[in-house]
User: Fold this.
Amino acid sequence: MMNSAQVLSDLAVGLATGSIEVVDLSVTLSPETPVIQLPDIFAQSPGVSFEPISEYDPAGGNTWYWRTIRMGEHTGTHFDAPVHWATGKDYASNATDTIDPQRLVGPACVIDKSADAAANTDTLLTVDDVLAWEAQHGQIPKGAWVLMRTDWSKRTAAVDFLNDSHTPGPDSAVMRFLIAERDIQGFGVETVGTDAGQAAGFDVPFPCHTLMHGANKFGLASLANLDRLPATGAILVAAPLKLKNGSGSPLRVVALVPR
Ligand code: 23J
Ligand code: MN
Assistant:
């Protein structure tokens, strides 16, 4: 029988000694952070802006520096809540302020599609990819975060990162499979949104948004450093800002990784 207090005290030792490493999976938010560009008929999300509230002015008795921030809820490394999509809008506790925090921490399964993405920028994650991964690493556990590694976060120039909406993502069958057959917690990607760049034209438009949120599950976009994670064995922590009725929020995603 697991002794939970012992598990946490072992965790504390692991963190202190570095045998458990905390890996940052987030990008820096700045006015240069690329933002998704939707077809012209839709409203666009603003990029990041910072406005000073005050600067250090010790002579004036002001020894602090702080800023006002402005950005869309879906900017940089960010969380997609079920309420973001029409298919998820009627679930209880479906927004960033009401999601059960127990659901924000869980095991990560990292599926490496970086070679395919390098060969074809529109490459899709399929059920066959998941089954091949499982043959090697075991079945994806219920409640897992499934992360699609593409090394897309290495595209540091905005034009290459957005790539005129030719970016990888999941197909609709793999979303159905991960929901119905594996009951995952959520799906994470390195690209600007959880769906492929061409997903508006798929058989189910935007399958990750439509199906994942339709199943009350989560998304994570613009993750980085997925190449520093093992295929299994890491624990993901993804806690969005507690925005009232938030459709999502920028966040710091970290992974606990055994070394
Ligand atoms: C709105 C419409 C389409 C998409 C998105 C948002 C996102 O990717 C997002 O950040 O949730 S594809
Ligand atoms: Mn989003």
Summary: The longest strand covers residues 105-112.
